[in-house]
Amino acid sequence: MALFRKGRTEDDIVLPDGEVVEVPGEELGDETDFVEEDWEGLPTGGEEEFDPRADGPFDIDEVDLNDGVQRLDLGALILTPVSGFSVKLVANQETKEVQAATVTWGKSGLEIALFAASTTGGSLDEVVAEITEQTEAADGSIEFEDGPFGQQLKRIVPVPGTGKEQLFHVSRIWLVEGPRWLLRGTVLGEAAISDDETLAEPFAEFLRNIVVRRGNTPMAPGDLIPLTLPEK
């Protein structure tokens, strides 16, 4: 299985307001800026009968973390850093609530967010329907493709450009449903727009190595589960 393949690593966690939190470990790499017209993607459950979580991501009750590997504990998400990857936290400017984690490597990135899901399942289909509706409302397009976690959604949405130039936000989203949670991974940059699927493989491996600590707090399906800053 994929979990725990990675060694000790480190990076700075950078909030949008400039606050930096040091995380001990090895050097992960430099930050990467993205150009909006260079983005692409999105996934769902897949048509074939298979377990999209067979190799991760895992729930906290499914693994033993007492293996000596240093990980990045963000409360609801536990990340296994990878050498060459840069990690940032995305926070709400007003509430300072940490909403997502973004990892970058080369000219690509992966934004990771966690949501509450129904105890009876089915949240995945509802999220896909909502994303499709939002994309169409923005005059964008969605294409369903086979992905590493089943069906992925390739999403292209027009964005304002300078002058008469038309730009597009391109992404691929992977959605993985676990016990009472749904993990969303949005691939950005070169790995999203390129036909070379190998560019996204390192990010799929990163997502497989994530451990989810959902907790017992009652939440409505679809609610964003906030993350916490790691202890210094």
Sheet bearing the most strands, described? Answer: 8 strands, mixed
The helical percent reads 10-25%
By DSSP, the count of extended strands is 14
Q: What percentage of the residues does DSSP assign to strands (E)?
A: 25-35%
Number of helices: 3
- When the domains are counted, the total is 1
What would you call the shape? globular
Average pLDDT, to the nearest integer?
A: 78
Q: Poorly predicted ranges (pLDDT <50, ≥5 residues)?
A: 1-47
Look at the helices and sheets and give the structural class: mainly beta
**Through-space gap between termini:** 30 Å
What is the fold's blueprint, element by element?
Elements: E1 11-14, E2 20-23, E3 40-41, E4 58-59, E5 72-73, E6 77-79, E7 86-91, E8 98-105, E9 108-116, H1 123-137, E10 141-147, E11 150-159, E12 167-178, E13 181-189, H2 190-193, H3 201-208, E14 211-212
Parallel strand pairs: 3-12, 4-14
Antiparallel strand pairs: 1-2, 5-6, 6-14, 7-8, 8-9, 9-13, 10-11, 11-12, 12-13
Keywords:
single chain; eight-stranded mixed beta sheet; 232 residues; four-stranded mixed beta sheet
Q: Could you walk me through the main structural features you see in this protein, from its secondary elements to its overall organization?
A:
Helix content is 12%, strand content 34%. It is mainly β and 232 residues long. The protein has one domain (11-212). Strands 3, 7, 8, 9, 10, 11, 12 and 13 form an eight-stranded mixed β-sheet that branches. A four-stranded mixed β-sheet has the order 4-14-6-5. The longest helix is centred in the middle third of the chain and has 15 residues, at 123-137. The chain is globular, with a radius of gyration of 17 Å. The two termini are 30 Å apart. The relative contact order is 0.26. The model is unreliable at 1-47 (pLDDT under 50).
